[in-house]
Amino acid sequence: MRKLLLLFIFTQIIALVSAQVSITVNVGAPGGLSSAITAVGGNLSTITNLTVTGIIDARDFKFICDNISNLSILDLGDVQILGYIGSDGTYVNSTTYLANQLPGHAFCNSTTGVGKRSLTSVTLPATTTSIGDNAFSDCAGLSSLIIPSTVTSIGGYVFYNCKALGLINIPENVTSFGNSPFRSCTANLTVSPANSQFIVEDGVLFNSNKSTLIEYQYNKTGAYTIPSSVTTISTNAFTDCTNLTSIVIPSSVVTINTFAFAFCTGLTTVTIPSTLKTLGWFAFSGCIGLTSVYSYMTSPSGLSYTINPFIDVNKNLCTLYVPQGLAASYRSTTPWNYFSNIIEMKTTDVQIFVGENKTKIYPNPTTESFCVSGIHGSVALTLMNIDGKVVLTKQISCNENISVSSLPKGLYVVKLLSDDGDFEQKIVKK
Q1: What's the pLDDT at 10?
Q2: Each residue of 134-174: pLDDT tens digit?
Q3: Which of 135, 345, 377, 392 could bridge across to 106 with cysteines, CB 3.0–4.6 Å?
């Protein structure tokens, strides 16, 4: 029996090895990859590992994407990418393709939107300067990719739905991104210390001074409080982040762009500051789990928006909480009047601290729960562990009991957020 088992394993290994077909070709003229493969007797349906040297352009990328059906490992390290103008490139319509640019839709069919899912590893030319829109979009099997240090720009949706990537490092020379380059991508993001334009903090991509939140990591879970340095939330910044449960938007934010929180189906609570000036179209579209929106805007008609930012939100079940005395104003102003349940918060003093010298957290240390005194109205609370991970966000009122019984023992940081300032204090859970 043991011999039969060993024989079976051996035959499976042989079959696996024999199933992998590796070829190396040199392309002498751009657009000539097909001929080069034919010249070496390559079978397009069996090639799994392909190494290319020489010169290629967008036509060759289209050929790879559409014709080498089982390609897994692609090495373009010694390739030069030339520019191309014409209708036979990776886009449906005639397009101008730049030299040294990985073309848009290089490995994603621009007609069907289906990526090259067999691909697991790609080595890019060391001369690559830009990566076009949707280049690796829907390449669900891609697990290994190093972005060359020569790259200066990364287009929109480049790594959309790349759920096998474990790590993406943004090199030192990148200065620009398109919309949502890492949408629905599970990779952990890092930024080269030499890059002066961008930073990653707790999986979230910002510009260097953290005034713009560019993209939130797709597979992060739980609640999140946006840093108080942020003034702009980019288009699609949180799109498809289905594990996000609540979001606190600080008073520093003035612009929330298009589709910023679209399809965050796990999102239940949103806090909107009084400082918000622009809410992009469909900003919260598809947030079907949303049950509470806290708006601190004292002039609801002063919000600039276009198409309904709350489309697909169940506005019969989701409650809109507004400053006291302003329910009538909200009910007569779009997009707020789409909500059936508009409730005024309990106090005329909206989101006001009476000062850190009077704000207290008690008991501290605690074993089961704590309260906050010295605040007026409804205030956004964030509780983080010592590693900076958010473990709780909620709206609280003065002396409200906040349970921490389910949390491990240790040191935590309590942050309170208001339009008039922030309050922070450490608390010990015994």
Answers
A1: 45
A2: 999 999 999 999 999 999 999 999 999 999 999 999 999 99
A3: 135
Mean pLDDT computed over 329-334: 94
Closest CA to 181 of 164, 152, 161: 161
Q: Tell me how far apart the alpha carbons of residues 181 and 22 are, in angstroms, rounded to a whole number.
A: 31
Beta strands 352-353 and 375-376, pairing class: antiparallel
Q: What is the pLDDT of residue 97?
A: 97
Q: Of 204, 258, 260, 264, whose CA–CA distance to 240 is shortest?
A: 264
pTM value is 0.77
- As a whole number of angstroms, the distance between CA 191 and CA 378 comes to 37
β-sheet bridge partners, residue 403: 369
**Nearest in space to 352 (alpha carbons), one of 375, 372, 374, 373:** 375
Q: How many Å apart are CA 66 and CA 181, to the nearest integer? A: 23
Asked whether the beta carbons of 195 and 172 are under 8 A apart, the reply is yes
Helix (H) or strand (E) holding 4: helix 2-19
CA 51 remoteness from chain centre: 32
* CA-based radius of gyration for the chain: 26
- The number of beta carbons lying within 10 Å of the beta carbon of residue 30 is 18
SS3 call for 300: helix
Per-state percent for the chain, helix, strand, coil, to nearest 5: 10, 35, 55
Query: Could you tell me the strand order of the sheet in which 390-396 lies?
Result: 390-396, 379-385, 410-418, 421-429
**106: which DSSP letter?**
T
DSSP character string of 62-120: HHHHHH-TT--EEEEEEEEEPPEEESSSSSSS-EEE-TTEE-TTTTB-TTT--B-TT--
Residue 209 is which amino acid?
N
Under a CB-based contact definition with an 8 Å cutoff, are residues 427 and 417 in contact?
no
**C-alpha span between 245 and 266 (Å, rounded):** 5
Mean pLDDT, rounded, for 65-69:
96
Would you say residue 423 has pLDDT above 90?
A: no
At 209, is the secondary structure helix, strand, or coil? coil
- Side chain identity at residue 132, one-letter code: G
Token pair of 224 as six digits? 């999140």
Coil vs helix vs strand at 391: strand
Region at 250 (left for phi over 0; alpha for psi -120 to 50; beta for the rest):
beta
Rounded to 5°, the CA angle 410-413-416 comes to 150
Q: pLDDT at position 346, please?
A: 64
- Is residue 407 within 8 A of residue 420, CB to CB? The reply is no
d(CA 121, CA 113): 20
